[in-house]
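A reminder before we start the practical. When you read a complex entry, don't treat the lines as separate problems. The point of joint prediction is that each chain is placed relative to the others, so the output describes one connected object in space. Small molecules and nucleic acid strands, if listed, are placed in the same frame. In the example below there are three entries. Take a minute to note the order of the lines before looking further.
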Amino acid sequence: MIAYEIERWTRSGKATLVAAAAVLLVLAMLPALANGLLIDKLTTLFIYILLAVMWNLLAGYAGLVSVGQQAFFGVGGYLALRLVDAGMTPYLALVVGAVGAGIVAIPISSFALRLKGGEFAIAMWVIAEALRIVVMFDPLVQGETGTSLLALNALDPDLRRNLTYWLGLGSLALILSVTYWLLRSRIGAAAQAIRDDEEAAASIGIDVMRIKQIIFVLAAFGCALAGTIWLASAITFLPRTNFGVQWTVFMLFMVLVGGLRTFEGPIIGAVIFFLLQTAFGGLGVWYLTGLGVIAVCFALYLPEGLWGLWRQRIGIDLLSVGVLFRPSGDRPTP
Amino acid sequence: MLDALIQGILLGGYYAILAAGLSLMFGVVRFINLAHGDLAILGAYLVLFAVEVLGLSPWVAVAAVLPVMALLGWVLQATLFARTIKGGFLLPLLTTFGLGAVLQNGMFGLFGSDAKSLGNHIGNLSWASWQLPFGITLGQLPVITFAVAVAVLGSLQLVLSFSKLGRAIRATASDPEAAELSGIDARAVHRAAAAIATALAGLAGAFLAMRALISPYAGPTQLIFAFEAVVIGGIGSLWGTLIGGIVLGVAQSFGATISAQGFQLAGHLVFLGVLAARLYLAHGRNHGGWRAALRLPRRAPSAQIPSTVTEGQP
Amino acid sequence: MTMLAVNNLVAGHGLLTAVRDVSLRVHTGEVLGVIGANGAGKTTLFRTLAGVHPATSGTILLDGEDVSALSPSRRVASGIAMVPEGRRLFVDMTVRENLQIAGENGRAGPWTLESVLDALPSLLPLLKVLTGGLSGGQRQAVAIGRALMSNPRVLLLDEVSLGLSPVAIEGLYEQLAGLKARGDTAMVVVEQDLDRAMQFSDRVVCMLEGHIALEGLPQVLGKQAITDAYFGLAQGDIAYA
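Here is the predicted structure of the whole assembly.
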């Protein structure tokens, strides 16, 4: 009989956390040093990472493949607009709007989560479309025309840029921490059990519906945060853009290129997507065509994504969300 | 009101053509093709190209484009779909989303952003109508579309019921491994199904371009409508797609009488309503075959005994 | 004449090896019985022979030709047909359609709908019935008929009598005996009932933990030796050779 020790914090894991804290500190001080363009770009990157991490949480860890996450991206922005219109301070409204979208996700979840596989994926898309049309009925949005978060124009452009940046960075830090904690908690383990075999999970006493709901609502909130930050940096709200299915397409792209079911993969995927866009975005439709080709190539030749490839070759997780069993005698000196 | 009802029913014919291919891919190949709408739009642009550049007459152009689309479907299945389907549920989504992006932006790059229509090329058909008693007007194009839909579904039904290919398709849909063990080349059957499905998408696209303006980015909206028709009608039922299409068309038609946005919203709400009602009734849970393809994307339903091998497992 | 020759076949599920270095010979007209406990690797062996499970290594020769690289449907076309465990009929199709499918996609030969119905007369009144509604014995008969329709040179029958009533088993073996009497097909049969297997087979192999622990003529080996091999008792030198 070999005795095992449970190890939850690998050395590389601890090192990564320290490094992440340092990076966070540097990024937080960056507006004092960097130029405006870089700050804007980084804000966009934060939005992408948020989206990718949320979609990975939903699809990779809970097995909920949604093609309709743009619903919350759009609703968050819309609620923020409504709140500002009602007199709330813009930056508070951006956060409260995202919370509101999370609340909207609760009734949606109690319907959508009862659907299975493809029906769930498609129903989410239809729900997003239905919400878009409902929002377009609001006179504030003016149908196809859309509207703008004019209140933000009252602020000094530099201050606005930095505030949006900090909001993005703070949101990202919050969401990453919560996701990391969640995945290492009982909820994360339960979600993965449900993903692998729902009936078996239910048979060992996991409250399947509640676990799925927690993940679904958190993912909705995260996507909505991304939506409100996007609104703050773009100012304009166009229903067809903010509720556009392309957001989910981007999420799918980032997660699968980076590596599904890993904590690091979606972040890598988001960085790659961001770099591709920065480098080739000017090519317009041919850039988007190329993105499609890349997506197809990854699906064909690298279905595990880049991080999956890295893990196969190197075998190191920077941030392990699992539990490592190590024979007691075999432990290297700490 | 009666007018909206008739318009809606006839519109259902178009949706049936569009949805039949999607349903075939679900049912036989167990593949969710998110580029189906874009393939329809591609078909429409190819017809437009044949008419405007090659100078063919519209119906000849449609007849010429269908085999091209079928070939495209065959090639896509052979090179792309068959390879990604092994990777579970997500890779096909990424692949077909990627394919959709290529098609949409490629069409934009090649054909430009202008909305186009075949309406100018089909003479008075785009507006001609028959007057019936009680003040009912029947547009000739919608009636033709509906008639073609019935003819297409009818011939598909005959092929499935009575031909060697049809039996092979049904056998593969029901149990791909058992089909292989009966001598059926399941990959060839999948390619045939993809060819039929893509040709149907092209046909639907041609009809769409005859009655409306199309643009390179029109595909996803059409895809949603096709999904809605398939799910409302019940997955795997050929005539169900016609019923689903009619229900969707009627809902949209009535919605449009309320407001321009109501057209889509009513369709979406009916779709969600049908799903909700089905959850309540828990109906269809025991419907095996094609339906199971959407419910259990990872596992093939088998007749009586799970296909997994228990032998050899500890 | 050796119709099926299997050389050093290895197959597994992930890290687990289910079939270890199995070699077999079956002649035309011969019935080879495969005996072994659950988990001994019988079904994996059959599925590998039919091509629906990948072989890790080894070769499968049909009448001297290597079929190891062929897809299941190509193997059917060259003459290997399997009646799979669980029958695996097309449940939403009629008995006639189930038979017809194998007939029009399989190998050409003497078996036609008429001759199969002659051999399996119990199917005659059921032709228009959907196979989903049949009893276990009827389903097994359809599955055998379906395999015959493809004119196999080698017929693999997995778990022939599993889940059938004693009466159905009796009827089934009468029909299989008729098939054996024709002498034109090589048959490999998995049968859990030891007496039945010993009586029906010309030769038996006992599988234990994926490899062949014992092989020979049933009357020569005797029931005791086969039972011991089944449970992996005695015969240790052979079993772990």
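Discuss with your neighbour: Chain B has one domain: 2-295. What might explain this?
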